[in-house]
Amino acid sequence: MRLSHGFVRGEALSCIYHGWSYARSGNCLRIPAHPGLTPPETIRVGTHAVEESDGVIWVAVGVPTAQPPRLEGVVPLRSLTAHTGVAAVEAAAGAKAGAVGLVWQAQDAQQIRLLLAPQGDEQTLIHVLLDHNSSLSQRIGASRAVERLRRAAEDLQTKGIAP
Amino acid sequence: MMQDAMIDEWYPVGLFSQLDVKGRKTALMGEPIEVALDAERRARVTCGDGRTLPVCVRYGHVWSSLGKPQKDLFAIPEADQPGRRLVDVGAIRVRCSPLRAVENFLDIAHFPFVHTDILGAEPHTEVQDYKVEIRQKEDEVWATQVKFYQPKAAKSASGGITTEYMYRVPAPTCSVLYKTCPPRPGEWDVITLFVQPLAEDLCDVWPWMALFDDVTPMTDLIHFQQTIFLQDRSILENQIPRLLPLDPGMEIPTRADLTSVAYRRWLKRHNYTYGAQLVAQ
Ligand SMILES: [Fe+2]
């Protein structure tokens, strides 16, 4: 069970399954099934450097050498999970992701910025960003366009066309 | 590779009350099967390759096997006790290993977090010590003297009580839970988990109950159990790795997990590995 399914209470992050909670440094603070027990130091989870910038939370894999890229002029719209790898999403969009994400020109929609985060086991988390001046109907249109993109990417994967 | 010993076990493949002559298409351990009533209104199970499979009807369900079961289906003596209501809950499809579904059923420490305000609630999170054994004569895993505070232990419960549990694993994908019976002290309510392995990472869970409860409408009893299992499903479909690890590895068991530890050890000893992962990854 990933801790991302869990909940934050005070300064601790807790697992949704059995409520084990962890401090910022990754050590286990509390095992609810055994409230009298001080969790040993060996029970800990990995930690990552985190940075918040332009409305997006960035997580570093390893030791980051630079600040996250700036995403000026766009605002976050939504995030969604595709049951496919990054390559299939790129293939469906007809563009590759660069340092500031993938710039996608959807049919019947404005330009959409996508940040693609591989989740392992053939899943990709897609963060959708739009021009900050977008109207409500443009935002709804973009949201639907990205759902179509997800379906297209998953179809490519099923048909074995994407790597 | 050694043939998995689970092939010769009995598995639930449907509710007898829902069978008809047209039949029901389903699967057992990766093989397509069909469960139907024959002309004499007896259950009949046919495999995709045309074989007629062994059948027995017990505890509301039709049971079958791809192999040759060496013994009868395990006994639940309470099923024949007068005064109990027998509840066919129906199937809940879960995208998880059948063994993970059973292990989750044996776990009480998740009650306050997954079944909040029903089977558990903070701050009553402590799991007191209980007894676990593998009974040699019956060849079953047993956990006894399990106690837990529950805000709403059953549909018939009106307030919080400390519930006592006993768990039994008589077959690799089946567990029987005995639970304090609020309207009848001295007796145990029986709640079972019968799991049909469709594939190594896909199963139909068939809960079944034998309760002392003359009051609660049947639909409410079924709905209560379905609510619980749907909460479990959201957990089970997100477990990593998908197959149940039988070798000690990344996980850190505590005293609360001793039933699970015994279950995994018992599975490994019997070479019950369908839905299991043997080498820690
Ligand atoms: Fe549960």
Automatic annotation (TrEMBL), chain B:
PANTHER family: 3-KETOSTEROID-9-ALPHA-MONOOXYGENASE, OXYGENASE COMPONENT, IRON-SULFUR DOMAIN CONTAINING PROTEIN. GO terms for molecular function: oxidoreductase activity. The keyword Oxidoreductase applies. The keyword Oxidoreductase applies. This is (2Fe-2S)-binding protein. SUPFAM superfamilies: Bet v1-like. Keywords: Oxidoreductase. InterPro entries: Cholesterol_7-desaturase (IPR050584), VanA_C_cat (IPR044043). Residues 94-269 form the Vanillate O-demethylase oxygenase-like C-terminal catalytic domain. It comes from Sinorhizobium glycinis. Pfam families: VanA_C.
